[in-house]
């Protein structure tokens, strides 16, 4: 049955066509079916959507979303033939995984390839991820998934020793990459750091770096910068390294799922695509972090190390304290200021920030043989204190098109502020990661870069009544009010007397 | 931020809006987020889709799919405000079920309500079903799911004793309802039979009945017909009984999942919505059927009976042989002919068809007290042989707007036919349900009503070389060729010598 093409000016994110309901019925085609589309000398498959609206797709016509129209070179009014297509074997493999079966390397590769080629529907994609969430994957499957994701994207090729540091995330204020990258780059190692924008946090490394320089580059520009100054801190999204990840994240996000096998594969495929040989992985552990116990952290570390071994990457995991924010600032501009100040005057900076940065940088220096075992953190600290790291960071800013002379006080922060004070004397017994994140996001971070939080009293600090515990910054007064409302509703920072109760009560 | 409404003439099946990517970015809104939409004095929530195409939705505008435009009464050019909406609690409950937790009645009710109100995305809906597939549900959860599905739809109210028969399906040629409904209706019991169109089979009861009469009615018309002639055989789809089912089926289909808890709730909510007090449930069991072993069938029966008890319905399960087709005909017109002939001349009809029909009808007569225990099938057979069932069936056809005088030979079948013969003498050792279904569908059933199969030799039959095993009917020669191709590729009917092999080999 020949159908007349109607090109719909809609980028749908999938390879799909729309049929009129009456045509679908007479062709025996249902919603979500796949059809073979033959247009002139081209053939492709597409997912079927159905409309009852004759204005959108009239009887006898076929709506081409932009993706398929472009692929087929189809124009309005041309004629196309469709027929029911066989289900791709990748879908059969997804159904197999849904039954709890173990998949072969070929099966997993085929799923990843079809995901990247937009041959899978969102339903099929999420089913694959939920099957991972429920049944898990063994290391052979994870290796296949990682290599499949690696093969379907671009790969950075650099001469010399290439290393990176990555955090599995979950802790607010974690701007350590802005210190680690220049420390490492100033030793002559290449560190092509890619990261994502914040997904659930108030500021990802990319968001913080974007306050100081551009972060969006092509893979060639990225390579040039790294070869010139040794390191760069860019957004991974535009580089097309392991693009399957974006497709998987799009369906994981709304369900707030993060299957362990997919997390391992996502991180390691992105890092392998940077062409690295050494990786230090930060596993923040503690209440409110992604990993809550040392036991979980150790088990995850074992998997990362084994997966690294199969990819030819030496992995060292640093299990770090993730129970409260790193440093004092949370939010893109505030974190950029804190990082820049820490590079300028490490002695005056927050101990958690400097300590964590030099510890992780030190591990990288040790596994690459740049420092002896046990001496890495000291070497990193020396580099930081010598001013070399600051100089290198300004070179990186310059290479990425920012102002290399920028001073911390020139960075703009939100003009609407609020100070949250303690009503009693006592000790800070809790700084709650989740509430801190919610307040900073309510204040506008990471979209509004000047918004966020500065924490003045962290766990264990002795405070007196009326003392400022934290300040909120916002670019808009409405956002400030929203942030304050959360703050007044649930205390993000808890102050308690050492004497918690008496027995008997009085 | 005020946005200008652009009404998109697209029925999307969901409550969704489309934002331009730049606007979404500056609002901090992502794909699949939910927004609160305020338009004049109306407020609603909608799911967010994002376009990069300024022709579809330009900067500063908001695309309203038809559903939300209608609901809000919004017109092109009007102004609307949106803001990020809270996630509905139903989504929180779905995530809870994804973690393997047991849900409360209130939580399940809220999920069903939001599904029916189109407040859930397809991803969220399928996650709910996959969580059921993986973790199952206890009987309290299943009861809540069933009652939730019942409450969100219409309910048929009839005076007197209302009964029904239902099959969990999976066996081709299962036209028994066309015999059972008139047998039961002729006793004075009400039997308001609703069924779906074929999903994976070559003909559902609705498809077969549609050859003889109309099947699409409003709930009031349905009630009037049942009160007039005692029974009716209609399509459930237009009655709005338990409409949540359609929403769930739409996401189950592409993944070929059918979680047991959802199957129980779907069937029982539809049946409870018919207002019945007695139900006979057919559980076809055997290789290639939905239930493969007696143990599984007994366990499923126990659940149906318990769920029925909680809904005030007396359920009796008949475990029937489902290892090969029922009767000889497969496909809407061919099945209608076979059913009509069986009503006219039960002695000449296929024993499996008449036997199964009277057995299940007999169970209904027994549980309602119309027949004594052990005598139901005999009473049903008497009704069939007396001609009362045929007379009643013709009254039902008449009430449903068909020709009550119709003769079997007047029913049109496909004019393209092919006879599949045996190449050896021997015994029929296998009639494969799945292959039979595939061939009949390839021939055009159920869309092309005259297409299908007539089987001439069933399991255990002795056949001679050259004897016709089955005939294929098709309305189009291309479809016939497709069906023949499958047939030649995988034999649907296997003939073997009694002597299968010798030991030693010769």
Question: Can you put this structure into words, describing what you see?
Answer:
The structure is a homodimer. By secondary structure, chain A is of the alpha/beta class. The first copy, chain A, folds into 4 domains: about 1-85, Barwin-like endoglucanases, CATH 2.40.40; about 90-135, Transferase, Pyrimidine Nucleoside Phosphorylase, Chain A, domain 3 (Up-down Bundle); about 165-240 and about 260-400, Nucleoside phosphorylase/phosphoribosyltransferase catalytic domain (Pyrimidine Nucleoside Phosphorylase, Chain A, domain 2, 3-Layer(aba) Sandwich); about 410-495, Pyrimidine nucleoside phosphorylase-like, C-terminal domain (Aldehyde Oxidoreductase, domain 3, Alpha-Beta Complex), CATH 3.90.1170.30. In chain A, about 40% of the residues lie in helices and about 20% in strands. The first copy, chain A, has a 6-stranded mixed beta barrel with strand order 1-5-2-4-3-6. A 4-stranded antiparallel β-sheet of chain A has the order 12-15-17-13, with helices on both faces. A 3-stranded parallel β-sheet of chain A has the order 7-10-11, with helices on both faces. In chain A, a hairpin with a 2-residue loop joins strand 3 and strand 4 (about 40-50). In chain A, helix 6 packs across helix 11 (about 260-275), helix 7 (about 175-185) crosses helix 16 and helix 17 (about 435-440) runs antiparallel to helix 18. The first copy, chain A, is globular, with a radius of gyration of 26 Å. The model of chain A has no long low-confidence stretch (mean pLDDT about 90). At the A-B interface, helix 1, helix 3, helix 5 and helix 10 of A face helix 3, helix 5 and helix 10 of B.
């Amino acid at each position: 049955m020949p159908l007349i093409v109607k090109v719909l000016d809609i980028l749908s994110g999938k390879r799909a066509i729309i049929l009129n309901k009456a045509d679908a019925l007479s062709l025996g085609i249902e919603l979500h079916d796949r059809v073979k589309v033959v247009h002139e000398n081209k053939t492709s498959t597409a997912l079927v959507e159905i409309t009852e609206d004759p204005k959108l797709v009239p009887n006898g016509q076929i709506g081409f979303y932009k993706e398929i129209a472009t692929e087929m070179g189809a124009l309005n009014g041309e004629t196309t033939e469709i027929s029911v297509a066989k289900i791709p074997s990748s879908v059969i493999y997804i159904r197999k995984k849904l039954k709890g079966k173990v998949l072969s390397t070929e099966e997993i590769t085929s799923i990843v390839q079809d995901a990247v080629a937009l041959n899978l529907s969102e339903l099929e994609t999420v089913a694959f991820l939920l099957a991972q969430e429920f049944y898990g994957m063994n290391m052979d499957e994870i290796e296949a998934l990682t290599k499949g994701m690696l093969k379907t994207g671009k790969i950075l090729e650099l001469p010399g020793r290439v290393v990176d540091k990555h955090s599995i995330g979950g802790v607010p204020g974690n701007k350590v990459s802005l210190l680690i990258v220049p420390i490492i780059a100033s030793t002559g190692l290449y560190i092509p750091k890619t990261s994502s924008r914040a997904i659930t946090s108030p500021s990802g490394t990319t968001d913080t770096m974007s306050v100081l320089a551009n972060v969006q580059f092509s893979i060639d520009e990225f390579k040039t910068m790294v070869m010139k100054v040794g390191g760069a801190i860019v957004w991974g999204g535009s580089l097309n390294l392991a693009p399957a990840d974006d497709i998987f994240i799009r369906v994981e996000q709304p369900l707030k799922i993060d299957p362990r096998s997919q997390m391992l594969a996502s991180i390691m495929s992105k890092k392998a695509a940077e062409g690295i040989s050494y990786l230090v992985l930060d596993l923040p552990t503690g209440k409110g972090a992604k990993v809550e116990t040392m036991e979980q952290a150790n088990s995850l570390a074992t998997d990362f190390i084994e997966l690294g071994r199969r990819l030819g990457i030496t992995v060292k995991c640093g299990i770090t304290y993730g129970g409260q924010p790193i440093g004092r600032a949370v939010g893109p501009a505030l974190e950029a200021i804190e990082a820049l100040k820490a590079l300028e005057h490490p002695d005056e900076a927050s101990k958690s920030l400097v300590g964590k940065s030099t510890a992780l940088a030190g591990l990288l220096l040790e596994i690459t043989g740049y420092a002896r075992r046990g001496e890495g953190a000291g070497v990193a600290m020396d580099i930081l204190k010598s001013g070399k790291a600051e100089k290198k960071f300004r070179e990186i800013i310059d290479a990425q098109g920012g102002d290399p002379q920028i001073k911390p006080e020139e960075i703009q922060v939100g003009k609407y502020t609020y100070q949250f004070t303690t009503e009693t004397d006592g000790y800070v017994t809790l700084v709650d990661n989740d509430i801190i994140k919610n307040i900073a996001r309510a204040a506008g971070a990471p979209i509004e870069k000047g918004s966020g939080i500065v924490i003045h009293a962290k766990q264990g600090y002795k405070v007196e009544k009326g003392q400022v515990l934290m300040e909120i910054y916002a670019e808009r007064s409405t956002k400030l009010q929203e942030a304050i409302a959360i703050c007044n509703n649930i205390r993000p920072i808890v102050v308690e007397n050492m004497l918690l109760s008496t027995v008997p009560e009085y």
